[in-house]
Write a structure and sequence with these properties.
The protein is an alpha/beta fold. It contains 20 helices and 18 strands. It has helices at about 15-20, 25-50, 50-55, 60-90, 95-125, 135-140, 140-150, 155-175, 185-205, 225-230, 235-245, 260-265, 315-320, 335-345, 370-375, 395-400, 425-440, 475-495, 550-560, 635-655; strands at about 280, 290-295, 325-330, 380-385, 405, 415-420, 420, 445-450, 500-510, 525-530, 540, 545, 560-565, 580-585, 590-595, 605-610, 610-620, 625-630. Strands 2, 3, 4, 5, 8, 9, 10, 11 and 12 form a nine-stranded mixed sheet that branches. It has a five-stranded antiparallel sheet with strand order 14-15-16-17-18, with helices on one face. A two-stranded antiparallel sheet has the order 1-13. A hairpin with a 2-residue loop joins strand 6 (about 415-420) and strand 7. Helix 4 packs antiparallel against helix 9 (about 185-205), helix 4 (about 60-90) packs across helix 10 and helix 5 packs antiparallel against helix 8. The longest helix has about 35 residues, at about 95-125.
């Protein structure tokens, strides 16, 4: 352990002069110190940027201090593999290999930290949280995602690439003294100090002496999910998301446990081959069951519907709402398209795990409307303007009852092609053509058409609408275009022979940019839904409702009597004393909103959180805010009911009992 450890002349860097006392572990010490400084500075920058929201929590000091703790965890994770290899590679015999290995390991590790932190501001602007599982999942689809980034986020993309290149050059320069290092420690010295280095590394990663190591839930110290994510660093957030995606089996157990019989008792399920098997007696008797068309609208939240308290950018939907069944208080189950597909097409309740559209055990023999209707002789199809392999949609649909898929390669001479595929106009023109052909064949049909125009970078053809605002490429303008496409499609549908024989459901998959300073931003789960058709009697449903109620409701309106495993309610003919409920999965928080009186404003909310007690509140419809409250008199029962409804779908998935009877 001589002062000339790095060769002659000795480095003048104070950092390396400190690090050389740690012998072969010197580059890891440099990584730890420089990483800690860098991550703390970037966190401080984000705190300044989001100062109002941070200040509102009253936890500034804890945000910064706990942030250092998270940084230690992440840097420990990055150091773990070199530390484990050091008893062999850090000896004199293999020192040249060790020197080269640690040089590149530290270089790439620090560059990775810089890259992810550089990507963070743009990600927060879009998703109101640090890079998380969405970031990880999007890595699977480089073609679609890079096209979106290049068209709509050039500045953020170029900034990230520039910062990465600069980081590579600067870190390589920082590590230059290590390239001339000599092996000064004898092997016994390496082996003697290794246990201490390993213990310190492992303790830094665990960050606690309790039974469970630290995880993001430990750092959720405020009611604002975005602020909680600032405590993390983006590498840790992404690493944990990747880990969680590989360990989805725990699912809803993060909220607690209940005996199996208790879960069934609280949810109305029963022990049997299919615990939630239900017989649907339709509210409307039909001589011949109707066809079904679902128009699943990308990111069409209530914030875009004036009569629901939003902007006036959906004039066609506003006109049509008086012609069908209009839901004024319907809530999405999640924040991703695959979660919306899961709710609307399968009626499956949400869990903290990924959507069943992407999970392994649900790729076949899992209930969908298509599986049910195909057994009754229906032609079942999915139409999408983009590439249907995205988010595993093609695999899931083809394995669960959909007979044919139409996607981007099938659109001949489309009017307009955006980053995410053919425009909504093309999508609905194609849908109309297909429906005309199906009707002519005399075979009943179920068609699911999924839009994509209201997705960043918000591209759509010119000359279709009067822009709501400038510039053109905004969500408000994209929604107005999507609404235009819906209006044109319904005009053609009304004039077609299939109108009187078909139930049409127009519903959003989720809202856009779901964010807020509450545990669950309920206002951003509020979505419009409208059921139309020549045989549908207009009405307004003002009760609290969930996306999972819609597939049951449309089957009832179609006149189909059947057995199914869905837990949603038939809202086609609800009584005055009906009390609705909604369930919302927001990252790792599960919100359950229960209607208490005849008015949706009379409600109570419980939020289940990983590793923390349930939080209670009331959702104020006027202010569109979740107001925190003390636990109500029935708080324990409410929390237990919510827990049962989160555990039930996890149980059904794991045991593969969410399916049609044989």
């Amino acid at each position: 352990m001589q002062s000339s450890y790095f060769g002659k002349p000795r480095s003048t860097s104070k950092l390396w002069r400190l690090a050389h006392w740690f012998g072969p572990y010197a580059p890891l010490i440099v990584m730890f110190i420089s990483g800690l400084v860098f991550l703390s500075l970037t966190r401080l920058g984000l705190v300044v940027w989001k100062w109002e929201r941070v200040l509102a929590t009253g936890e500034l000091s804890q945000i910064l201090l706990q942030g250092i703790r998270v940084d230690v965890i992440q840097l420990g994770l990055l150091a773990l593999i070199p530390v484990l290899l050091s008893p062999i590679l850090a000896t004199r015999k293999f020192f040249n290999i060790w020197r080269s290995f640690t040089f590149w390991w530290v270089l790439l590790s620090l560059v990775l930290l810089v890259f992810l932190e550089a990507a963070t501001p743009g990600f927060i602007l879009e998703y109101d949280v640090r890079p998380n599982r969405i970031f990880v999942e999007y890595l699977k689809y480089p073609h679609e995602v890079f096209g979106m980034l290049w068209q709509g986020f050039k500045l953020e993309l170029l900034f990230g690439l520039l910062m990465t290149v600069i980081a590579f050059v600067l870190v390589a320069k920082l590590l230059k003294p290590w390239r001339h290092a000599e092996a000064k420690w004898a092997s016994p010295a390496v082996w003697l100090i290794w246990p201490l280095i390993l213990v310190l590394t492992v303790f830094g990663i665990r960050s606690t002496l309790t039974h469970r190591p630290a995880n993001p839930a430990l750092f959720a110290i405020t009611q604002d999910s975005m602020v909680n994510s600032l405590i993390l660093n983006s590498a840790y957030s992404v690493f944990y998301a990747a880990y969680s995606l590989q360990h989805e089996a725990k699912s809803s157990a993060i909220y607690g446990k209940l005996p199996r019989e208790k879960i069934f008792a609280l949810t109305g399920a029963h022990e049997g081959d299919i615990p939630t098997l239900t017989t649907l007696v339709p509210s409307v008797k039909r001589d011949k069951p109707l066809n079904l068309v679902i128009l699943l609208q990308e990111s069409l939240g209530a914030g875009f519907v004036e009569s629901l308290g939003g902007k006036p950018v959906t004039p066609n939907l506003e006109k049509l709402k008086d012609e069908g069944i209009w839901f004024t208080h319907l809530y999405a189950t999640g924040t991703r398209s695959v979660r919306g597909i899961e709710a609307v097409v399968t009626g499956f309740q949400p869990t903290p795990a990924d959507s069943t559209v992407k999970l392994d055990l649900s790729q076949k023999n899992f209930f969908t409307l298509a599986a049910l209707l195909s057994k009754r002789g229906y032609l079942t199809e999915f139409i999408y303007g983009g590439e249907s392999h995205f988010d595993n949609m093609r695999s899931f649909f083809m394995g669960n009852g959909f007979q044919q898929i139409t996607d981007q390669p099938d659109f001949k001479n489309p009017v307009f092609v955006a980053s995410w595929g053919a425009s909504d106009e093309d999508l609905l023109n194609k849908t109309h053509d297909q429906l005309m052909a199906h009707h002519a064949s005399g075979k009943p049909f179920f068609t699911l058409a999924f839009s994509s125009s209201n997705h960043a970078p918000f591209e759509f053809p010119d000359g279709r609408i009067e822009l709501y605002e400038q510039p053109k490429a905004t969500d408000n303008n994209a929604v107005k275009y999507a609404d235009y496409a819906i209006g044109e499609f319904i005009k053609k549908a009304k004039a077609s022979p299939y109108w009187n024989d078909t139930v049409f459901l127009i519903v959003a998959d989720h809202d856009i940019r779901v964010r807020g300073d509450s545990l669950v931003p309920i206002e951003h789960f509020h979505i419009p839904a409208l059921i139309l058709g020549g045989a549908v009697q207009p009405k307004t449903v003002d009760a609290i409702a969930s996306q999972i109620d819609l597939p049951v409701t449309v089957l009832s309106l179609m006149g189909i009597e059947t057995q199914h495993p869905m837990t949603g309610h038939d809202l086609s003919n609800v009584s005055d004393d009906y009390r609705g409920r909604a369930m919302m999965q927001y990252n790792y928080n599960f919100g359950w909103m229960q209607q208490l009186g005849r008015d949706a404003a009379d409600n109570e909310v419980v939020v289940l959180r990983e590793g923390k007690p349930p939080a209670f509140g009331h959702y104020d419809l006027a202010s569109k805010k979740l107001q925190n409250t003390a636990a109500p008199a029935d708080g324990a029962a409410l929390a237990e009911r919510a827990l049962a409804n989160s555990l039930l779908p996890a149980l059904l998935y794991k045991e593969q009992r969410y399916r049609l009877p044989e």
